[in-house]
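Quick sanity check, Vacuolar protein sorting-associated protein 16 homolog:
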Amino acid sequence: TRPLLEIYSASGLLLASLPWKSGQLVQLGWTASEDLLCIQEDGTVLVYNLFCEFKRHFSMGNEVLQNHVLEAKVFHTEYGTGVAILTGAHRVSLATNIEDLKLRRMPEVPGLQKPPSCWAVLSQDRVTIVLLAVGQDLYLLDNTSCSLVTPPGMSPSAGAYLQMAVSFNHRCLALFTDTGYIWMGLATLKEKLCEFTSSIRSPPRQMVWCMRPRSRQRAVVVAWDRQLMVAGNSSECIQFVLDEDSLLVPELDGVRILSRSSHEFLQEIPEPSQEIFRIASMAPGALLLEAQKEYEKESQKADEYLREIKEQKLLPEAVRQCIEAAGYEHEPDTQKSLLRAASFGKCFLDKFPPESFVRMCQDLRVLNAIRDYQIGVPLTFTQYPPWDPGGVGWPQQQTWGGSAWGWGLCWDLPAPSLPPQVQQKDKSDEEVAQAINQKLGDTPGISYSEIAARAYDCGRTELAIKLLEYEPRSGEQVPLLLKMKRSKLALSKAIESGDTDLVYTVVLHLKNELTRGTFFMTLQNQPVALSLYRQFCKHQERETLKDLYNQDDNHQELGNFHVHSSYSEKRIEGRVGALQNALDEFYKAKNEFAAKATEDQIKLLRLQRHLQEDLNRPYLDLSLHDTVSNLILEGHHKRAEQLYRDFKIPDKRYWWLKISALATRGDWEEMEKFSRSKKSPIGYWPFVEISVKHHNRYEAKKYAPRVPPEQRV
């Protein structure tokens, strides 16, 4: 009577089964390394391999244990496979990487009394966040706060959110509401890509993205009980009727549709295939394919097609199109037809490099083999990795139990075996590393990082580090060094590579691994990493930036930090307080100019507050120039004079400001009175100019006699 846990291949062959003897299951999911995660109601996660062999277990924490699991999601980021839990207390807890388990409790949504209608996990700028919908409200939960967000361009009558979907690369987001409205945009919620309104308003069973890498076509697939709809940037949609209940699995370049009896793949047609097989296509690849077919028929049309391609000098492009299109086709007959066309076209080219053709034949041989139902791994060409010792071969050979299929695939492509020296323990690490390098050298296709990983698995960490010295790709060195807990060495390698993304990856790993003090001291010895981390903190963690400046006694930057912070203060007392802190730091930095400017700003803010209270007019946040100008425009000449004296405004600037404001106000009497108060530091020609500008020639004539002859135009 116990339930059974069964694992099938993608072709429906039973791989293994297991009577389930543990607790109530809430969610199943796969890791990037093809381990099965079984998430129970009490927050325990059991890990099995493909053959139902138990590997380990871990817990999602006491809070999850006490409140139980309502929903769970398995997600993938650059850090690895993660697990997110929604508890019975309507709180979200997550672990970004189950291999290095660190639980995070996300902030609470204010006033949440019932489960959210939908939620999703996003990865942005190396930070994992949660998007959660409650009715018509959308909340964004990050490490420190919960904020209410509104997608740009969202229709006001859109209604309550029912479903959301994040794209495979975490860059796009789709939202479905109870009015049938679908919003599609960037996951950063800064830009809307398109929208669509469906005639079906009932909650969908699933909604996933369907898009290809580097394609401009974006679409979501929405599934109800027996109906499938594809909607994108068009005003129309595509609908399919399903024969039975199905499950959608989003992937890198499409969507898999799984049911009890079928496995289908829905994707945008790749561009080379579109070019060649479009009706009445005149693309060079299409003409070359027709030429090859006519040649087999011994028809003279073959020469006509070839001549047309060669006259346009597009024969190399035609060959490349046919080779590339062959990779995207799943039917071997179509693959052969395209490759025959490419081979036919190569005969008429003198210097076409054969590597791409040979490589495609090898790749298709592997892909067709693993797509066989006995193996059941229907990879697309986009998902198929370039050959290296860690690609299709070594891990899959172990996964498939060392079968003839596995070993056949392993040796189908030109890849050497892992050196036996890795296993030798009677020689020093230096000797073994040199021996391996002398044997393999710089042979194309060799990955020293893969050999180093094997050495690390054998317990020879120092040998692995020495082997990594021969690895030319920093992107391969750094992840393994992090796995070996050699974070400081990984940081040095990342900095040497000049790859800022790699440096950020290591720095954020160090931040999670080390204590705060040790982390800061480590960055002190790496100026490049420290500079990049400061840039990160400026946009993501302002308070951490303050701590960095405090540790360095960098009073100048601390002053700038407080000035910047003052603008985020809504109350005037808070703003003045932040500026006072900045003033103290500028004095410590001995920056008299910045200190005087800050002091004047504090004095101006306080005066503006009094003016606003006394005159009931908006003066806060105006510049000194605008403050004086507004006072004159409103006739408060004594107050303007007081600011002129208090802030030591230069005479010329003040006279220009005052006569401009008086002319705008139309107070010509006061302007004439002001002109006679003392000798004008700017002369009297400006009085004439401003009067004429305001169409008052009568006033201009008053000041013209006082202008020296040499200044008159």
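Posting the structure with no commentary besides this: DSSP finds 27 helices and 25 strands in the chain.
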